[in-house]
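Thread: sanity check for a docking pose with pyridoxal-5'-phosphate

Original post by kr_44:
Hi all, I'm comparing my docking run against an independent structure prediction. Below are the sequence and the ligand SMILES. Could someone generate the full complex and paste the structure tokens? I mainly care about where the ligand ends up relative to the chain.
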Amino acid sequence: MSVSEAPSAPDRLVLLNPGPVNVHEDVRTAIAAPDSCHREPEAAALINRVRQKAARIGGGDDSHTSVLLAGSGTAALEAVFSSVVPAEGRILILDNGHYGERLYRIVSVHDVPHRRLEFGWTNPIDPDEVDRVLAADPSLTHVGLVHHETSTGQINPLREIGEVVARHGRQLAVDAISSLGSERLDIPADHIDWLIGTANKNLEGLPGVSFVVAPRHRLDALENVPARTFYLDLYGHYVSQDRLNAPLFTPALQVLTSFEKALDLALAEGTETRGARYASLADRVRTGLASRGASFLLPPEHRSNSVTDVHLPEGIGYDDLHDGLKAEGYVVYSTQEQLAGVFRVANMGQLTEADIDGFLAAYDRVVAKLAGVAA
Ligand SMILES: *Cc1c(COP(=O)(O)O)cnc(C)c1O
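Reply from moderator J.T.:
Ran it for you. Here is the predicted complex with pyridoxal-5'-phosphate included:
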């Protein structure tokens, strides 16, 4: 591309990290909602509307409902993984990355009986292995996994795993925090008992609200499971929101107002259309970087449509690449623990083809400059 064709600097910081994302103008302005009290009827109405819309995103039907939590995605994860397994139960944690490991760490902190099954950070979870382990170990009552392992950009075979877990009559808890809204997921068809989502990734809201979607009968049955935490007691939040029509503690009301707008936009666009929009942007990132000699951590068939793990160019460190791109208006992301020499480019949120082209042009300038410095 000649200099005259180079896209101009972006008009905002372009977020190529896997959430928080660039949001729609209506989502941003909605946060300037009027001052309000969370124990008034208008707050109860807002909470109930958001609960219904959040349950619909993943294909929940009338038998499902959702519970909202103030906090980032990990708050909802911790509510589920500390609340749903009874003392006489045991959960199988399927771990193939940073976020699978986080599930293991949560159940460990709360002394939830568990078994951890590791697959390695770049391998998909193998449903046949899950089948064998469940067949051999009747003490396992629950299974937990991450749908989109955001550390590597890997999509795990949720449908196949859901079928295995349902066939064995166990309960399935899914961290769908970075997949819900743009990856194929269907709560009934995938046999999901506990679905965890958050506002500020593929649902394109602002950070501060996360949620759990579950069949009502599963939430009702938690009455018999003693809480392991006070603030994140899932049953307590459910009873308050669903039966008492008042939140247990102070919710992030203005973030909820903005999240309702994001949910309206997500429902209007539809998961399939948003997924196609993301896939096309991911393809632009991958084709663009590949034509510049970059290589990727995962084979194409395992990649999500919103995160790409890329090997750093020879002789260039992550911090220099990040800082150079940031100065041009683009935020890329580092990787976690086991993935030295790799950086991440996400394409969640309100991004355009021009944003991706601008990023690629900036990448060229930054890499050329750093290579010149290194030489
Ligand atoms: C982002 C993310 C989380 C939650 O992280 P928070 O910082 O609490 O929002 C959990 N699981 C996955 C797979 C994620 O991508």
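The mean pLDDT is 96. Hope that helps with the comparison, let us know if your pose agrees.
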